[in-house]
Amino acid sequence: MTKERELSLSNTPMKDTGFRFDTRYTTLPPVLYHLGEPAPARRPEVVVFNARLAEELGLRLGELSGDAQASLLSGRARAEGSVPFSQAYAGHQFGGFSILGDGRAHVLGEHLTPDGRRVDVQLKGSGPTPFSRGGDGRAALGPMLREHLISEAMAGLGIPTTRSLAVVTTGEPVLRERPLPGAILTRVAASHLRVGTFELAAAATRNAPELLPALMDYAIERHDPELREAESPALAFWEAVAKRQAALIASWMRVGFIHGVMNTDNVTISGETIDYGPCAFVDRYAKSVVFSSIDEGGRYAFGNQPWIARWNLARFAEALLPLVDEDRDRAVAKAQERFAHFEGWMNEAWADMMRDKLGLPGRDEDDIALATDLLALMEASSSDYTDTFRALSGATALPAALEGARGWGTWKARWNTRSGRGQDEAPSADARERMRRANPAVIPRNHLVEEALAAADGDDWDPFHRLLSALESPYGERDELTPFQQPPPASFAGYQTFCGT
Fold first, then answer.
1. Phi-psi bin for 275: left (phi > 0), alpha (psi -120 to 50), beta?
2. Spans of the chain below 70 pLDDT
3. Is 139 helix (H, G, I), strand (E, B) or coil?
4. 456-468 b/e with 16+ CB inside 10 Å = b?
5. What is the pLDDT of residues 423-444, one digit of tens each?
6. For residues 266 and 87, what is the distance between their CA atoms, to the nearest angstrom?
7. 273: phi > 0 → left, psi -120 to 50 → alpha, else beta; which?
8. Are 221 and 228 in contact (CB under 8 A)?
9. What's the pLDDT score for residue 6?
């Protein structure tokens, strides 16, 4: 996996890579970042490269030699215009507030894509920073491959997400419970602004009153420029972020995704999913299911995600109070009035998502009850989440345990009536098509992800690339997808995920 020789370290910026850096974040007050170079990897080698994403970004990395590509994507060489930095932010982690920052990541800059987007390009696992808190700043290969696999699967599922451009091995071990191969992931994001970024700015307001307004101006200009003329840009911005989060959480619930660590430093302003450490996907449905080894109390359980989003957005609203009104009491009253709408936005986003999954026409006030009653039946019968919804569209047979569950016939009759068809009729062609667009045939099943990562760690890359390929188009029915649609074997019970290191 590693090379015999070390690559030379170049101080001359690489030209003709396609990168068009126009970084504005470093014009903000320096408390928000630290300028600094990645620690060069000793013997970097590109092991995964996302050629399709590179093309979308207008990059010409495929034209580089293997050594040049590895140097650029490991921090040994710098693209023209790049001024690397690590970001500072705060965050509520499992409810407790901490001052944080990029402890093992460097943003290379803000790249302008051919279609006019501005994206951050970041190396993750690229060495220590002032925010490392004693850590080595490096990352192990397995977690970086997991992030590549899951983030690209989420993109295929149509869910807003950061993307992975490449994974590079460093040729050096990282010491965890045992020595592991080191790696660096190149992450692409609409931005790395988080709720925690604003929490840091708010915490520093007393000593740096200019920080919060400057950050707000930058964020609005980058993500919501139409809000510059709003009566209250801060409240309008909070609402835009809240609505993006409601839509994002509903999309997670649609495919059975559990983030696993919904701290405020993992809540993006852009509405993208970020950080794929202890994430997992629901197999047998249970709203209380938790896979993360550190979530002992079930704070971030599958069914809790909408309400954790609400809690996180309350912290965001608190951070913005100085920008809402000079008088704190008035600011709180105005923020509470706007915040009261979130539950309705979240419920409607979830209900619309379920209407798509069930092929329901229009809207009915009883749709939420219809959906939640189905979920209760699925939980009572230990039915597979993905298979059940795919079966309702007629793509596969209904799980036997659900079909035999007490109350199934009554629920099915309600569903047929709500859908406007006879009790023995199948969903119409239009309804089936809508359902199949909402219900994937393939998800990154936890056992398949673990098998692929274990094989890659042993230098057998075929399982990893086969799974990655299957996840590129997850909504179609193709014979070659059958091996990737199977629920986990009974021996896979008790599965846990861990924060990526």
1. left
2. 1-11, 501
3. strand
4. bbeeebebbebbb
5. 778 889 999 999 999 999 999 9
6. 13
7. beta
8. yes
9. 65
pLDDT at 3: 43
* Structural tokens at position 338: 């706007």
| Angstrom distance (rounded) from CA 191 to CA 236 | 19
The model's pLDDT over 27-75, given as tens digits with 9 standing for 90+, comes to 999 999 999 999 999 999 999 999 999 999 999 999 999 999 999 999 9
pLDDT at 426: 85
Cα(226)–Cα(106) distance, integer angstroms: 30
Q: Which of 299, 308, 262, 254 is nearest to 281 (CA)?
A: 254
CA distances from 286 to 137, 163, 226, 279, 374 (A): 36, 29, 41, 16, 12
C-beta of residue 407 within 8 angstroms of C-beta of residue 415 = no
| Phi, psi of 281, deg, nearest 5 | -125, 140
Nearest to 74 by CA among 166, 191, 188: 166
Q: Dig out the tokens for 398 from the structure.
A: 């209904």
Supply 302's token pair. Answer: 């599958």
Query: What's the pLDDT score for residue 395?
Result: 83
Determine how many CB atoms are found less than 10 A away from the CB of residue 293.
Answer: 12
Q: Which residue type does 42 have?
A: R
Supply the DSSP symbol for 40.
Answer: P
| Cβ proximity of 37 and 73 under 8 Å | no
What is the distance between the alpha carbons of residues 463 and 46, in angstroms, rounded to a whole number?
18
3-state secondary structure (DSSP) of residue 188: strand
For residues 57 and 51, give the distance between their C-alpha atoms in angstroms, rounded to a whole number.
10
Catalytic residue among 120, 265, 275, 283: 265
**Residue 492 DSSP one-character state:** G
Tally of residues, the chain: 501
265 catalytic residue (yes or no): yes
Instruction: List 124's β-bridge partners, or say none.
Output: 105, 185
Dihedrals phi, psi of 41, to nearest 5 degrees: -70, 145
Q: Is 192 helix (H, G, I), strand (E, B) or coil?
A: coil
**Taking the model in full, what pTM does it have?**
0.96
Q: What is the DSSP string of 276-322?
A: -SS-EE-SB--TT---BTT-TT-TT-GGGHHHHHHHHHHHHHHHHHH
Residue in this structure with the two tokens 């869910």, named with its chain if needed? 159
Q: How many Å apart are CA 47 and CA 54, to the nearest integer?
A: 15
Helical ranges in 340-444 per DSSP H: 342-358, 367-380, 385-392, 400-403, 408-419, 429-438
Dist CA 64 CA 81 (whole Å): 18
Residue 62 is given by DSSP the state G
